[in-house]
Amino acid sequence: MNPPSCPPIPKIFTVLLPSLGNIIFVAILLVLTLNIAEGLLGDGDTGYHIRTGEFILDAGRVPRVDIYSFITPTLKWTAHEWLSEVIMAIIYRISGLTGIVVFFAIILATTHWLLYAVLRTKCDDILLCTIVTVLATVTASSHWLARPHLFSLPLLLIWYHLLDQFQSHEKPTLKYLPILMLLWVNLHGNLIYSLTDSPATALQHRAKARALSLTTLLTIAACIVNPVGIEIFWFPFRVTSDRFIMDWVVEFMSPNFHHALPFKYMFIAVIAALALARTRLNLIEAALLILVSYMALYSVRHVSVFAIVVAPILLKMSSGIAESLPRRLSEFYQARRKLFADLDAQLVGKLWPAVAVSMVFGLALTGAVRASFNDKIFPVAAVEFLKREKLSGNMFNNDEFGDYLIFSAWPQYRVFTDGRSDMYGEKHGSPYLKVAGVQPGWKDILQRYAVSWIFFPTQTALSAALLEQPDWHPIYSDKVATIFVRKVAEHQHLIAKYPSVPVQLVNNNK
Predict the structure, then answer these.
(1) 503, 480, 494: which is closest to 398 by C-alpha?
(2) What is the CA radius of gyration of the chain?
(3) Does the pLDDT value for residue 456 go beyond 70?
(4) DSSP string covering 229-291, please?
(5) Taking Cα atoms as reference points, which of 407, 455, 415, 430 lies closest to residue 70?
(6) Mean of the per-residue pLDDT values for the chain?
(7) Are the beta carbons of 216 and 210 closer than 8 angstroms?
(8) Coil vs helix vs strand at 4
(9) What per-residue confidence (pLDDT) applies to 223?
(10) What are the tens digits of pLDDT across the range 425-442?
(11) pLDDT of the residue at 287
């Protein structure tokens, strides 16, 4: 028995009703812009990226050395995200942090709407496409932060789709890739096919390999057009080969499967689909699946890449599995799938995204929606205190606090460390961890860097230890941050002004 079809709907409803693609776009946009308490501003790096963009706009140049830390000699700094930072700075100057949040929310909503559209070109099972898109979206959301890396997500999706169109459908899409500066993933697959397939097919793969090789050279040439030239190619290798960064920076660590991490469910779904799939993966798809799975298991920051790259592969493996379900369940699924597909095909699907974007812009412009760094996480009040009191001397600070301090109080204050772990490396990162963890020799490190005041989270071992040191005195404390000054002549006026500041430690956390 054929599944029932959806009857034609009145023309007015073809405009008013949202398509499934519309629902995906609108849901992501509204969740990210209306739930602003943390969301995209959950990481302090956003702040220093904005300030760097402003520096580039004002100075007319991209910085080649550190401008935020007091550490000497001045550290070499590769500001490899300079164009993203300029865009962020322009948006911030026009509409503040709210504009930053809205901008990146639109990028993410568009990216996952495009992912859904790409999946729909590969499979006519609209329900399965929706399920895979939602799973990929939730998985990718673990690293949704208003930072330059979000620009890479739509570019990755476009690159992937263009390569797939060339590889699988013989379409002339390679001409677009040098413009997008694509990192190639298909070249070696075609070379292997050219050696193993039948003579006629091998000729096609050799032709593809030649085209990919030429485009790779053009892409490399395009990549060199940047402020640091060919050096940009060594930067990612320098970062990933730094064992200190890989082992100690949270976003470079492996995912923690003990937490409620959507990635583990998508990964399990991939394993299940591999076991049940009726269609085999080709060599390139298998290589991609292995590569991005390894990347995501090695470092949590690659989970978003995994979600986008694996979604079409998961869709391919999952299609047809519904047919193997028990007969009544399969018939129920096929009927609903056809009804949704027939209904969706009748919808125009342009009204809801336009209305949602207009509404978000309206709420932002009127101030009804206002984004800011969460003062329960970031030292908002403590930085205002610092701006009033104008402390002198070198500071030792928490790295997340450093990001926020750069955003809120640079150049009045220069930091000991911040989110640029690739610049600090083990040479300065290791001393930071030793002091933060109150490890043997921590006092010597403070002396070496001539630290005269400390700006650190209240509920930490370092804050507890400093309370017991006779040569340190707290001049400010709240639930987020505490500021200690060394008992030296230059700080006597602050100690006299704030002789007794209660530090809100829980169980005297040491």
Answers:
(1) 480
(2) 27
(3) yes
(4) GGGGGHHHHHHHT-HHHHHHSGGGSPP-TTS--HHHHHHHHHHHHHHH-SS---HHHHHHHHH
(5) 415
(6) 83
(7) no
(8) coil
(9) 58
(10) 888 989 999 999 999 999
(11) 86
